[in-house]
Amino acid sequence: NAGVTQTPKFQVLKTGQSMTLQCAQDMNHNSMYWYRQDPGMGLRLIYYSASEGTTDKGEVPNGYNVSRLNKREFSLRLESAAPSQTSVYFCASSEYGTRVSTDTQYFGPGTRLTVL
Amino acid sequence: KNQVEQSPQSLIILEGKNCTLQCNYTVSPFSNLRWYKQDTGRGPVSLTIMTFSENTKSNGRYTATLDADTKQSSLHITASQLSDSASYICVVSIKAAGNKLTFGGGTRVLVKP
User: Fold this and answer.
1) Do B84 and B110 touch, CB atoms closer than 8 A?
2) CB atoms inside a 10 Å sphere around CB A16
């Protein structure tokens, strides 16, 4: 099992460009998440999908959109990138999501995005 | 405001020595507390999860403690190895709002030979 995979690993964009970050999991998990991690700060939730067909905003959703394509895949789109979106983006998945309080989230390797 | 504060921000220890990392939180209502290990350039990996009723949990050489009264947790690493060099992140789950996770900023540990 590959677990949670993310593409690309690195990306450099110019201000105003758009791109989509891809995430896939092979653990048959119901819930998927997108986080960003900035230096010295904790991970912050951008969007999550409790189950296939549903998506909800997290703590910092502005400037992002998501698509839960199917049970395996959850993509994050930046429509018009800004320098403030320079960060490391992590996708995660979990089996039960909000239905089980001790549900473990499994993280992908991250995408390092720089917006010039 | 729900916050998770970790200390120290970083530390250097010699291989074979022990160390203890601290986590203080103001999250309420509390559901559970997790410790994650994040290697450089990788995603976080879960080490332990403790609920309100648990005050200690071990995972190999890692032992986490929880004092829900004082809202403090610690992660103790025994007989450190070079592979323990990583960031350790304290994460608290909020009972309401769909078990939302609040992440600390992490403690970066460097183990030297």
Assistant:
1) no
2) 10
**B105/A90 touch (CB, cutoff 8 Å), yes or no:** no
pLDDT digits (tens, 9 = 90+) for A47-71: 999 999 899 999 999 999 999 989 9
Both structure tokens of B70: 């004082």
- Burial (CB count <10 Å: 0-12, 13-18, 19+), residue B60: exposed
Q: Please write the tens of the pLDDT for every residue from A4-34.
A: 999 999 999 999 999 999 999 999 999 999 9
In this structure, are residues B53 and A101 in contact, taking their beta carbons and an 8 Å threshold? Answer: no
Look up residue A98 and give its DSSP letter: G
Residues of B with CB under 8 A from a CB of A: 4, 31-32, 41-46, 49, 51, 89, 91, 93, 95, 98-106
Which distant-in-sequence residues (6+ apart) come within 8 Å of A18 by Cβ? Answer: A77, A78, A79, A80, A81
CB B63 within 8 A of CB B75: yes
Q: What's the pLDDT band for B97 if we cut at 50, 70, 90?
A: low
